[in-house]
TrEMBL record:
Source organism phylogeny: Eukaryota, Fungi, Dikarya, Ascomycota, Pezizomycotina
Domain of life: Eukaryota
Domain NmrA-like: 30-273
Species assigned in the record: Coleophoma crateriformis
The family this protein is said to belong to: Belongs to the NmrA-type oxidoreductase family.
Keyword DNA repair in record: no
Pfam families in the cross-refs: NmrA (PF05368)
The entry's keywords: NADP
Stretches of the chain forming a coiled coil according to its record: none
Name used for this protein in its record: NmrA-like domain-containing protein
Gene Ontology CC annotation, any one: nucleus
Length: 355
């Protein structure tokens, strides 16, 4: 008798380990049963950067001759995506919409100039696989391309390379020429669900670029400076400079910054823009971006009673109306919510930024 295994927390360290161990045993069937009779499927995979950041004898032994850790991670995520696509394709007529969380094909759009942005390309190659193998599924597929997470600073200097100077000021050292002709689409990860809800309402074949605000790196830096009261300067660096922060992974992130600057985050593709299509007043998002330091922003500022017809943070704020931010500027001073308390996550950021 076949048995169904349910893993709670499959995206975590323990849950993913259980899933990977059991999926090696072909007698276990997983995704087909999970997707059975589903009408809507949202698919997403996780890029495993650990072998790049922390190579071990075990991880190095898994590499094919001449293969880099980044290429290995890409192949691993591609296989995960193929498994999802194969399972969804097997559903036949029961599926109405398959939503895939993708990113732009940086190697393609840069003409091969930036071949090492594996955490982008690992998602886009899944799209290529689906288009080649499953034309019927392709006709039902929509793509969600999330912008640059405002929470990336928590991943350390390789992700957002701030440097504190002896005079107490900060430098944001970013690879690129400094012109930044392409603004960066910045998104609060907690808004993903709202964008998926919007994608469900749109016809298959939609590719949605989801973000809360388009900002240049200069604007981004100025907001950090204003939020903390600490003077900051944007300095241009090279990909090689960035690689020195953490060899291997530093190069991948350095290429990502350079690619975003030169070719645009979405590679110049003709993608639908959530804010153009639905028209929320995104200038409110820029206000709230000064408070994005808290991961509890969604609950603290946008109560559920705003309504069902919501799209991301920008539209929810527009529905509430103009908000006067409880803001005190100056080094060491905090954002204060209405009850006079202090957001815990801002404490975390302020302590890191000032120390």
């Amino acid at each position: 008798m076949s048995k169904l295994l349910v893993i709670i927390g499959v995206s975590g360290n323990q849950g993913s380990s259980v899933a990977e161990a059991l999926l090696v045993d072909l007698s276990w069937k997983s995704l087909q049963e999970v997707f059975k009779d589903a009408n809507l499927v949202f698919g997403n995979t996780a890029f495993d950067a650990a072998p790049i950041i922390f190579p071990t004898e075990e991880s190095v032994a898994k590499l094919k001759p001449g293969q880099t850790a980044g290429e290995f991670a890409l192949d691993k995520e591609l296989q995960q995506g193929k498994n999802i696509a194969d399972a969804v394709a097997s559903m036949g007529d029961s599926s109405e919409l398959f939503m895939w969380s993708s990113l732009s094909d940086s190697k393609k759009w840069s003409g091969g100039k930036y071949p090492g942005i594996y955490h982008f390309d690992s998602k886009s190659v899944v799209v290529d696989y689906i288009k080649e193998e499953y034309p019927d599924l392709t006709a039902k597929m929509s793509l969600l391309q999330l912008g640059w997470f405002v929470t990336n600073w928590k991943l350390g200097r390789v992700a957002v390379p701030w440097e504190k100077q002896t005079d107490g000021s900060m430098i944001l050292r970013i690879p690129g020429s400094g012109d930044w002709p392409w603004p960066i689409p910045i998104v609060q990860p907690a808004d993903t669900g709202e964008f998926v809800k919007a994608l469900i309402k749109l016809p298959p074949g939609t590719e949605l670029l989801a973000y809360g605000e388009l900002m240049t790196m200069t604007e981004y830096m100025n907001l950090w400076s204003k939020a903390t009261g600490v003077r900051a300067t944007l300095v241009c660096a090279t990909v090689d400079d960035h690689d020195k922060l953490l060899p291997g992974w530093g190069r991948e992130i350095g290429e990502t910054y350079a690619y975003m600057q030169e070719f645009g985050y979405w590679g110049g593709k003709n993608v639908d823009n959530a804010f153009q299509r639905f028209g929320p007043r995104s200038q409110h998002y820029k206000k709230m971006l000064m408070l994005y330091l808290t991961s509890k922003l969604r609950d603290a500022v946008c109560p559920d009673e705003v309504g069902e017809a919501q799209l991301g943070l920008g539209e929810r704020i527009a529905a509430v109306g103009d908000l006067e931010l409880p803001l005190k500027l100056g080094a060491g001073e905090d954002y204060l919510p209405d009850d006079g308390g202090e957001w815990d996550d801002f404490k975390e950021f302020r302590r890191w930024f000032l120390e």
